[in-house]
Amino acid sequence: MKADVMGDALETVLVTADQIDQRLTEMAAEIDAAYVGKEPLLVGVLRGAAMVMSNLALKMESSLAMDWMAVSSYGSGTKSSGVVRILKDLDTDIAGRDVLIVEDVIDSGLTLSWLISNLESRKPASIRLATLVRKVGAANVDISVDFVGFDLPNEFLVGYGLDYAEHYRNLDCIGTLAPHVYGG
Ligand code: PRP
């Protein structure tokens, strides 16, 4: 979906489709260089990471495997409470594997913090982290991210996997949602 389809629901385009494509090409090369002689397991965190993971994998030269997890914050209301439950676990035994977690966005960092410690307990050879978007100033957990697409402001972002109530994930760029849409 192109930005013009959203009309006034989209306030500003922060990153164009071409810029995302170019950055994913660069990130794929960076990741390939980090896994020379290895076969990484890309772990996508559903649902937002679907676009990033697919397009990143298509651009990579490495022989790789892909698996998916779905997680949700525990309890009602607040997202990113830091207490996470697994809705869909990996199908792969990651013991001894080189794992690359792929995210669309890191916001508070709480989801990833939990996920990293959960995956570490399964004794992988390594865990690295790639995200298309890291929100600036939002992280209240110190997470070292190995591959970052874009550092963007802490605003309501949609597109390229990022949604508002399940809408706009298929927007081909990343932009800010107009406040009138979400009642902001
Ligand atoms: C998003 C994103 C991360 C998480 C990041 O998922 O994909 O998993 O939020 O937030 P945090 O850094 O504050 O923990 P979301 O819960 O929106 O689910 P979705 O991928 O299905 O949209």
Task: Outline the structure in words.
Helix 1 (17-34) packs across helix 2. The longest helix has 18 residues, at 17-34. The protein is of the alpha/beta class and 184 residues long. It is 23% helix and 31% strand. A six-stranded mixed β-sheet has the order 4-3-2-5-6-7, sandwiched between helices. The protein is built from four helices and nine strands, in the order E-H-E-H-E-E-E-H-E-E-E-E-H. The protein is globular. Bound molecules: 1-O-pyrophosphono-5-O-phosphono-alpha-D-ribofuranose. 1-O-pyrophosphono-5-O-phosphono-alpha-D-ribofuranose (PRP) binds at residues 45-49, 79-80, 103-112, 163. 1-O-pyrophosphono-5-O-phosphono-alpha-D-ribofuranose (PRP) is lined by residues 45-49, 79-80, 103-112, 163.
How large is the radius of gyration? 16 Å
Number of strands: 9
The main β sheet shows up as: 6 strands, mixed
How is the largest sheet built, in terms of strand order? 4-3-2-5-6-7
Secondary-structure-derived class: alpha/beta
A few lines on this structure:
The protein is α/β, with parallel strands linked by helices and 184 residues long. The protein has four helices and nine strands, in the order E-H-E-H-E-E-E-H-E-E-E-E-H. Helix 1 (17-34) crosses helix 2 (50-59).
